[in-house]
């Protein structure tokens, strides 16, 4: 078994062009994420997959291994699928968002360990509990997930999930974190499937996996590290980093 962590990093972004190279506390955003991932003990390899020469050059300058991929990929998952073609030894992949500079290395290791423990598992991801009264529950930019009793994902949605017609003590709302681990053979099949109806309705590609019968294990985590989608959020991350 050979587990590779991959950070997809594209230049184009409707809200934040050039985001991976935006400087936060003197370093490019993607470097902060890479340094956190470098603390992991369960990854056999770590790679940045990009579509831009500037990101490639910056990654190599701070010591990362990086590979160029097509600029035509609609999702980071497609970019990762291209990147692993040059990694014949890789059996499992952890897809780490390139805009989470405070991601917990222990969470990445836990996902990798889960895939190692259950090598036939299609996918694994993570979610952190929210209080049902948290305003994020109603935010369509915050993805929610509900699970079966054994921790398998039943559904992901931008809507409040579950709908509490009746109060249930101890039942949290689970906020989905955009980190995934895949078995290589599953990932290679996944990117050949067309976008599915629920995926298109919710704009959530993980629903394509569920609609095609995949099993997604959801790990519950206390990691609430924020991502960076706007320059304003980048400034908040810089403030948080300065306080560490």
UniProtKB/TrEMBL annotation:
Q: What is its EC number?
A: 2.7.7.38
Keyword set includes Transferase: yes
Reactions that this protein is recorded to catalyse = 3-deoxy-alpha-D-manno-oct-2-ulosonate + CTP = CMP-3-deoxy-beta-D-manno-octulosonate + diphosphate
Pathway(s) served: Nucleotide-sugar biosynthesis; CMP-3-deoxy-D-manno-octulosonate biosynthesis; CMP-3-deoxy-D-manno-octulosonate from 3-deoxy-D-manno-octulosonate and CTP: step 1/1
- Its primary localisation, in coarse terms, equals cytoplasm
Q: What GO MF terms are annotated?
A: 3-deoxy-manno-octulosonate cytidylyltransferase activity
Role summary: Activates KDO (a required 8-carbon sugar) for incorporation into bacterial lipopolysaccharide in Gram-negative bacteria.
Q: Which family does it belong to?
A: Belongs to the KdsB family.
Record's protein name: 3-deoxy-manno-octulosonate cytidylyltransferase
Native organism: Haloferula chungangensis
């Amino acid at each position: 078994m050979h587990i590779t962590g991959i950070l997809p990093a594209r230049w184009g972004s409707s809200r934040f062009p050039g985001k991976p190279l935006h400087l936060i506390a003197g370093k490019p955003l993607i470097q902060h994420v890479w340094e956190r991932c470098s603390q992991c003990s369960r990854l056999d390899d770590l790679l940045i997959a990009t579509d831009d020469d500037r990101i490639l050059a910056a990654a190599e300058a701070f010591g990362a291994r990086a590979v160029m991929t097509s600029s035509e990929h609609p999702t980071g998952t497609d970019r990762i699928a291209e990147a692993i073609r040059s990694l014949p030894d890789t059996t499992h992949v952890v897809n780490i968002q390139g805009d989470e500079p405070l991601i917990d290395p222990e969470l990445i290791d836990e996902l990798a360990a889960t895939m190692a423990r259950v090598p036939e598992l299609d996918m694994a991801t993570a979610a952190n509990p929210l209080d049902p009264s948290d305003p994020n529950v109603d935010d369509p930019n915050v993805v929610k997930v509900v699970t079966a009793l054994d921790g398998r994902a039943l559904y992901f949605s931008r809507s409040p999930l579950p709908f509490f017609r009746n109060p249930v003590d101890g039942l949290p709302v689970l906020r989905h974190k955009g980190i995934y681990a895949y078995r290589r053979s599953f990932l290679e099949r996944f990117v050949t499937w067309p976008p599915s109806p629920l995926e298109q309705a919710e704009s959530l590609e993980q629903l394509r996996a569920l609609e095609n019968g995949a099993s997604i294990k959801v790990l519950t985590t206390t990691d609430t590290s924020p991502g960076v989608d706007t320059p304003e959020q980048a400034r908040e991350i810089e403030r948080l980093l300065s306080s560490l």
